[in-house]
Amino acid sequence: MLKELEAKLKDTEKQFEKKLANLRSEIQGKIILHSYFINSMFSILIMSYFHATPQGSRVAFGASISNVGNIGPFNTEITLLYRNVYFNSGSFNPATGIFTAPVRGVYYFSFSGHNISSRPMGLRLMKNGEQMVTVYNHAAGNRHETATNGMTLQLAAGDQVYMRLRANTWIYDNNNNHSTFIGHLLFKANKTTRPPPGSQASMFSLLCIILQKIWKTRGMITPTGKPACQPLTTPTDSFITTGIFTAPVRGVYYFSFSGHNISTRPMGLRLMKNGEQMVTVYNHAAGNRYETATNGMTLQLAAGDQVYMRLRPDTWIFDNVNNHSTFIGHLLFPLLRQAYAELLGKLYF
């Protein structure tokens, strides 16, 4: 009797082991199938987000004033012409100095102006007749000076962006091309999409949603009981209240900053990443004039890394309605392989 029970027990164990092996094989097959499906969807998304069509998607220009010497001063403002064109996808008109947005999207613009300091230089970045940001070099001595600023702007198709020279100021350029104006499309957008098309937040949110649907339709539970992925949101509101940019995905980002000060006291600015200084500007105290300093850097960030600006002790910074002091940043490209591995790690483990 005991031998019969032992035999039945061994037979049951063998059947159980066989079923367990089959179950493992089935689960492994599902995981492979899911991984293949996710990889396919990931490739499709990458193609749609990063391989834009030439028509209306690849927008950029770069130009300098060219070898003209001094322009100004005039008793009224003028629109500056940048005739030495390095690259133009077609939306910048060097005859008028005006860039016209071909598609709704988020664009980046930057400008530098050079002048002889016996007279002031005042430059304004304009959008549809409204000033966005400015630089102003006050008259002081007789030396050559350069000032730079820039801004990220959301434009509708047909919006116009251009540079204005303030009344009673001047700007200088020669064959060294000191005075420049550049702009390019970062990503297209529409009125209803949040995050906008081309943002990595929307891509990774969609992958999360795909995985959730796979688990549900295949009768699988979410690994480790983790809650469903939530769509990522843009960090705009948090940045406004804290001054801190938090990277939504692993990637390579570009940051730039400009600071304006009255030179009776120094100005010291530090671009920080997770508490560590990356680059800096420092205007030493000298006389009693307004000065601008600019710097920037390309940084590799992991999701959650934080970038922000710090003002050094015993220094100051100035701004007013002309928006001299600025801080900008944008994603150049995601590190796809690493970001994909991070995503799967969060979802499966």
- What would the principal axes of the Cα set say about the shape? elongated
* First-residue to last-residue Cα separation: 48 Å
Strand percentage = 35-45%
Put simply, the count of helices is: 4
Rg calc: 28 Å
The name of the CATH architecture of the largest domain is Sandwich
Give a quick account of the main beta sheet: strands, pairing sense, barrel closure.
6 strands, antiparallel
- CATH C-level class of the largest domain is Mainly Beta
Q: Which residues form runs of ≥5 with pLDDT under 50?
A: 46-56, 193-211, 218-235
Give the averaged pLDDT, no decimals.
Answer: 78
Compressed to H and E, one letter per element, the order equals: HEEEEEEEEEEEEEHHEEEEEEEH
Subcellular location: Secreted
Organism: Astatotilapia calliptera
Transmembrane segments: 31-50
Keywords: Membrane, Secreted, Signal, Transmembrane, Transmembrane helix
Give descriptors for this structure:
349 residues, Jelly Rolls, transmembrane, 3 domains, secreted, single chain, 5-stranded antiparallel beta sheet, 4 helices, alpha+beta, elongated, transmembrane helix, 20 strands, 6-stranded antiparallel beta sheet
Which secondary structure elements does this structure contain, and how are they paired or packed?
Elements: H1 2-50, E1 60-64, E2 69-71, E3 78-79, E4 84-88, E5 92-93, E6 98-100, E7 105-116, E8 121-127, E9 130-137, E10 144-155, E11 160-165, E12 171-173, E13 180-188, H2 200-217, H3 236-242, E14 245-246, E15 251-262, E16 267-273, E17 276-283, E18 290-301, E19 306-311, E20 326-334, H4 336-348
Antiparallel strand pairs: 1-4, 1-13, 2-12, 3-11, 5-6, 6-11, 7-10, 7-13, 8-9, 8-11, 14-19, 15-18, 15-20, 16-17, 16-19
